Structure formats: structure tokens, C-alpha cells
């Protein structure tokens, strides 16, 4: 049975307005595991709440919440030791990168980034932590016959760089998430699950007329082409979620499936409640 958590990016506006009240509402909804997304690591070592590690741990403990990961952006070597020390004290055992590391301009640049990933993985390992890579659809562009994702896997140490697969973005990169889960099952420690609506304004595959698969995809271009109406509450769309859960449960190191809502037409708290109820219909998950 795979445990289920929530990515706090799903409630980012609520957290900005009422940070601790939002955590309370998450706990009241029945979530027990949270993955943070601190995109201000230059100013805040932790998870974006402005508390010391001890204070943050006490706040989470009081609500019955456990932190199971955190996206840090930017990951840079000047700030990273303090960030990792904070999370080690907090009790978080893994740190991931998010969206900072693209575009991958050419193969040499990609290899350079992979070496940085290995170094970050070593720094995490020294603290008894793990480093993981989170994908979007850009990693399924190709350099020659291989996707960027395959090249990242090839040029990073599997003992230092683990993966958090985002099955939504894998699908939107024109790939089969079930096949990719099987291919890299030994490195898979976290899995992001979103959902794609039945009547979306874009095709599933972003490379099917939305963006050229040879184009350099910068962050502004990513944001420009990401349609908010191509997301729906998890379990209400067209993704083969039960098949994904079955495939992911065979990965020997997978601990959590994390629900994430990039955009919603609902109130954010209502949205994560709808996703929870819809996701509970699937077998093979554990909410305790």
C-alpha cells in the first residue's frame, strides 16, 4: 500500500494569505503527509513559513502532519548547506529540485547539470537525506535518439540522484507513464499525480502543435503555454490513475504518491478535498 500526501503548491494562495490556518485545514481534511515547495530558498532556509526548524516541526506535529519532501528553487551551492541543515533538523529526509534546471541547451550543458545533481546528492547523503529530480514535459525533448530524461538518468549516479515522477507531465511530454515507471522503478521514491480534464482546450501531448519539440523551452515559455484549464481535480479526469498506482506500487523504494493541483476553478481547500474523495476510490493506497 502506498501512502498518499499533498503538495503544498496546490494551496499556495491560501498559504500566502493564511499559512498556519491553511495547514490546519489540510489536516482537518484528512491529509497527514505534505511536500513543501519553497521557491524563496535564498531568503528562507526552510519550507517558506519563516520559522526555525524546531518551531516548524512543533507546528507540524501539533497538526499531525509530517513533511515528506520539499522542492527548493533555487538550489545553489552558496545557500544549499543551510537549507539542507534546516531540513535535517526538521526531520525531512529528502529534497528535490523543481523547475530551475531547464532549458537544457545542449548535451554538454546537460552533462554539466547532471554533475551538479550528483554533487547535491552527495551533500544530501552526508546528512542521511536523499536528493530527487522532479520532471516536467521538457525532459522528453530529444538530443539525438535519447530523451533528456533518459540522458539525466544515464549521467547521474542512481545512488545519489533519485526521482519523483510527475505522471501528468510525462503524459504531456508524449510518453507513457506506466512504461517509464517500470523503466526507472528502482530510482522512484515519490510520485506526483495530477489529472487531465475530459474536455481540455489543448491536446494531451504538448508537442502536438502546442510547442515545437526542438524549441528551447524557457520558464516564461513554459508558463505561457501551460493552460490552467488543462488541469482538473485528481480522479475526475482521463488519466489511468488506477493503473499508475498498480505500476508504482511495484517500485521497491516508492513511499508516497503526492497529489498536486497546479490550477483549479474551485477554492483551493475545496479542490484538495474533492481530489481526496475522488482518489479514495482507487485501491492500493493508504491514508493513515
TrEMBL record:
Signal peptide: none annotated. The keyword Isomerase applies. The keyword Protein transport does not apply. This is Sugar phosphate isomerase/epimerase. Residues 23-262 form the Xylose isomerase-like TIM barrel domain. Keywords: Isomerase. GO terms for molecular function: isomerase activity. SUPFAM superfamilies: Xylose isomerase-like.
Amino acid at each position: 500500500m502506498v501512502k498518499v500526501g499533498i503538495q503544498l503548491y496546490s494551496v499556495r494562495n491560501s498559504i500566502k494569505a493564511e499559512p498556519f490556518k491553511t495547514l490546519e485545514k489540510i489536516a482537518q481534511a484528512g491529509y497527514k503527509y505534505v511536500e513543501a515547495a519553497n521557491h524563496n530558498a535564498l531568503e528562507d532556509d526552510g519550507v517558506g513559513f519563516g520559522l526555525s526548524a524546531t518551531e516548524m516541526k512543533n507546528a507540524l506535529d501539533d497538526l499531525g502532519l509530517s513533511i515528506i519532501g520539499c522542492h527548493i528553487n533555487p538550489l545553489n551551492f552558496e545557500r544549499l548547506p543551510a537549507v539542507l541543515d534546516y531540513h535535517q533538523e526538521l526531520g525531512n529526509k529528502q529534497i528535490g529540485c523543481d523547475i530551475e534546471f531547464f532549458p537544457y541547451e545542449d548535451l554538454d550543458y546537460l552533462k554539466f547539470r547532471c554533475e551538479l545533481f550528483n554533487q547535491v546528492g552527495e551533500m544530501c547523503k552526508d546528512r542521511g537525506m536523499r536528493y530527487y529530480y522532479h520532471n516536467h514535459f521538457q525532459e522528453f525533448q530529444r538530443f539525438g535518439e535519447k530523451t533528456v530524461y533518459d540522458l539525466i538518468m544515464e549521467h547521474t549516479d542512481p545512488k545519489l540522484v533519485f526521482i519523483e515522477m510527475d505522471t501528468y507531465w510525462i503524459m504531456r511530454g508524449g510518453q507513457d507513464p506506466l512504461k517509464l515507471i517500470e523503466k526507472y522503478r528502482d530510482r522512484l521514491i515519490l510520485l506526483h499525480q495530477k489529472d487531465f480534464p475530459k474536455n481540455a482546450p489543448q491536446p494531451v501531448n504538448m508537442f502536438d502543435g502546442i510547442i515545437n519539440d526542438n524549441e528551447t523551452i524557457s520558464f516564461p515559455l513554459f508558463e505561457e503555454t501551460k493552460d490552467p484549464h488543462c488541469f482538473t481535480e485528481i480522479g475526475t479526469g482521463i488519466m489511468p490513475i488506477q493503473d499508475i498506482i498498480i505500476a508504482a506500487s511495484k517500485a521497491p523504494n516508492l513511499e508516497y504518491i503526492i497529489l498536486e493541483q497546479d490550477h483549479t476553478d474551485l477554492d483551493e481547500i475545496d479542490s484538495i478535498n474533492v481530489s481526496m474523495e475522488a482518489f479514495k476510490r482507487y485501491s492500493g493506497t493508504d491514508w493513515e
